[in-house]
Amino acid sequence: MAARKAGSGNRAMRSALRAHLEPGIEALGFSGKYPEWRRESGDEVHFILLQLAKYGGSFSLQAAWSKIGTDGQDLEKGFARTEFEQRAILTCPIELWTVEGARCDYQSKAFDYRFMLDDAEACERLAKQCADGLSALDDWLITRRFTPRAAPIGNTIGEFPNDTVLRAIARAKAELGLY
């Protein structure tokens, strides 16, 4: 198998994101270019950040907001200078099934494309799925209400995004004697 150049796994995905996601971000009134866009909204600045794994495999789309101070200096802030409590991440819905056949919907905080690195059509579908979720991040920026698609960046200790999945994992570990 030929060695892959660093970053070459991202080509098909970056092309799909440029075609489907970036126009959607701009349609919401954001300006800028990959990886960060911004817009002013009243007394706030809103940010969108697209992060791709350096060597391919996954990406995430995050939003953040910051108040504009009276001196206007906050306009110079970027996404990285916002507080974690002022951030949300777009989730990727994934269907999971338990051994018993029960469906468990899981919201991943990364869009994983490890197994489609060279499949341009699959990358297009994933980019469209991400672009379809832009409205959830935009709603969060306006309302500050988290939803299954617009989730907090981090989890608190003891929190798991889906109780059914957590119970199924715990049951499987117990059956395997891992507890």
Choose one word for the global shape: globular
| Mean pLDDT, all residues | 84
Please give the radius of gyration in angstroms: 18 Å
Reported for the largest beta sheet, the result is:
7 strands, antiparallel
- Considering DSSP H and I runs of 4 or more, what fraction of the residues is helical? 25-40%
Walk me through this protein's architecture.
Helices cover 30% and strands 27% of the residues. It is an alpha+beta fold and 179 residues long. It has one domain. Strands 1, 2, 3, 4, 5, 8 and 9 form a 7-stranded antiparallel β-sheet that branches. The radius of gyration is 18 Å and the shape is globular. 25% of the residues are buried.
Labels describing this entry:
179 residues; alpha+beta; two-stranded antiparallel ribbon; 4 helices
Q: What topology does this entry show?
A:
Layout: H1 11-27, E1 31-33, E2 36-41, E3 44-52, E4 58-67, E5 87-90, E6 92-97, E7 103-108, E8 111-112, H2 120-132, H3 134-143, E9 150-152, H4 163-175
Antiparallel strand pairs: 1-2, 2-3, 3-4, 4-5, 4-8, 5-9, 6-7
Helix pairs in contact: 1-2
Give a brief description.
This protein is of the alpha+beta class. The chain is built from 4 helices and 9 strands. It has one domain (8-93, 106-154).
